[in-house]
Design a protein that fits this description.
heterodimer; A: Cathepsin B, Chain A; six-stranded antiparallel beta sheet; two-stranded antiparallel ribbon; 51% helix; globular; B: 434 Repressor (Amino-terminal Domain); two-stranded antiparallel sheet; 2 strands; elongated; disordered C terminus
Chain lengths: 334, 148
């Protein structure tokens, strides 16, 4: 049994899942639009939360929030379920598939056999859409893959009940009811406003533009504090958070620039075209950061000198993002 | 990023390509396929090399009689005692005891089966430790291709 589901490959799992599900339920939607309406862009540096023993650095909002916010802002009814029993989780999944409903699911990456082995880490915030079952295999539309994939039931069960940070607990979600009419401009504005707020006006110094500055400030101390080996691991971790499959490049800044370009048309606001260009330039700065950082990691650049350069680049990113989001706020205020 | 600058530097991607966002000549955003980028290949390799280092250390400890073979399988699956406890349903203090060679040698079949199933292996293989880390990541052994 296979639901007729149009699979499209995208950069990022959750915004891709959101776009593909909306599309299936009759609202043509790009990944960038889903990402922007869902207010996906963020920066956070939380040194006291560790991920694989390294400080949490993130370029996006928490798992689940893009789907939740994008659907809420569009007035779409959704249903989310979590389970304590894997058997019950599988029964409900099968029932929904039988009813012709594509099912969004949060999974761990480590147990998914269709992932290239080198990408399989304990990361539990992955999202995909289950679109059918044939024999013992589930058919899956995973937006970061070119084609739909198959996954044996046992492996999917392990992935849905992966343990550790962000444990998905069998979480699935479906679209229940689409509204008769969408207010797309309102949803787009609301998504933009949220990102401007979190990037500019967070009460804690760990998030938004202040988070980028904090990272710049702490980073220059790493070589003395951590020693070369650990410093390099810390740096590599940031590169991966910024560029590893799923960000579309430049820590989601390019996806967001694509969203602003699309938003310019939806809101009939030419100012957003220029702001989209600015956002692209900021993404390029982040790419420069990753490239220099990777050379340090590989031992092709002297560590201490390069850290001053890297911190400078981060401060530039912070300054430019502060300007961008201030201008963006002004551009959409009426 | 410009469309023509989308990097095509494959490494550990096993033939997988992903989507990058880039602008074309008219300044319009397009979705471009990319097999990888040098900067992130380096970071990904580095993460795996850290795991290989950890495995070498644990092999040495096992050979020296300080740790049980379970420690090797745990590290190979990128787990620590806390995560292994959650996955196996065996209490953390027991998992930690099972990492001692003496305790592990006397372990009953129930616990051994639980661990073996979790690591997709047999009880015999659970007791064995290779001389060199066997991550079954063929690409990792190859030196980076000529894209530096």
């Amino acid at each position: 049994m296979k639901i007729d589901f149009h699979h499209r490959q995208f950069a990022h799992c959750e915004s891709g899942v959101t776009a593909n599900l909306l599309n299936h339920h009759g609202l043509p939607c790009s990944e960038a639009l889903a990402f922007g309406i869902g207010g996906g862009l963020f920066f956070g540096y939380v040194p006291f939360i560790k991920l694989n023993f390294l400080p949490l650095t993130t370029f996006r909002t928490g798992p689940g929030s893009i789907f939740k916010k994008a659907t809420r802002r569009l007035g779409i009814e959704i249903k989310k379920q979590k389970f304590s029993s894997p058997a019950a989780a599988e029964r409900e999944l099968d029932r929904l598939l039988e009813a012709g409903q594509p099912v969004g699911a949060q999974t761990g990456v480590f147990w998914l056999p269709f992932f290239p082995p080198a990408y399989r880490f304990h990361f539990n915030g992955h999202n995909l859409v289950i679109i059918g079952k044939e024999g013992n295999d589930y058919l899956i539309s995973d937006p970061i893959f070119e084609e739909t994939v198959r996954c044996p039931a046992e492996d999917l069960r392990k992935a849905r009940f992966a343990k550790g940070a962000l444990a998905p607990k069998g979480k699935i979600y479906t679209i229940e009811k689409m509204p008769d009419q969408f207010d797309l401009p309102l949803a787009v504005e609301s998504g933009i406003r949220e990102v401007c707020r979190v990037m500019l006006k967070t009460p804690v110094p760990l998030a938004g533009v202040r988070g980028i500055r904090l990272l710049a400030k702490q980073m220059v101390k790493w070589p003395a504090k951590l020693g070369e080996k650990k410093t390099i691991l810390h740096l590599g971790h940031i590169i991966r958070m910024q560029e590893e499959i799923g960000t579309g490049g430049g820590g989601f800044r390019f996806i967001y620039a694509a969203f602003l370009q699309e938003a310019a048309g939806i809101l009939q606001n030419d100012k957003l075209v220029d702001l989209s260009q600015h956002c692209t330039e900021i993404g390029d700065l982040w790419r420069d950061f990753a490239l220099i950082a990777s050379r340090v990691c590989r031992g092709r650049a002297a560590v201490q000198d390069s850290f001053e350069d890297l911190a400078d680049l981060l401060r530039q990113c912070a300054t430019q993002e502060e300007i961008l989001f201030n201008n963006l706020q002004t551009a959409i205020s009426r | 990023m410009k469309k023509e600058d989308v990097p095509q530097q494959g490494d550990l991607n096993a033939g997988h390509s992903e989507v990058n966002y880039a602008v074309d000549r008219d300044g319009q955003y397009t979705l471009e396929s990319s097999v990888g980028w040098e900067a992130k290949n380096i970071a990904l390799r580095q993460a795996w090399e850290a795991i290989v280092d950890q495995l070498r250390e644990v092999i040495a400890e096992i050979k020296a009689g300080q740790k049980s073979a379970l420690a090797y399988h745990m590290v190979k699956s990128q787990m620590d005692p806390g995560l292994l406890a959650q996955y196996s349903g065996i209490a953390r203090w027991r998992v930690k005891r099972h990492l001692k060679p003496v305790v592990f040698a006397k372990l009953d079949t129930t616990a051994l089966t639980t661990y073996a199933e979790l690591f997709n292996t047999s009880i015999e293989k659970l007791r064995m430790v290779p001389d060199e880390p066997d991550l079954s990541l063929a690409e990792l052994d190859q030196t980076e291709s000529n894209h530096s």
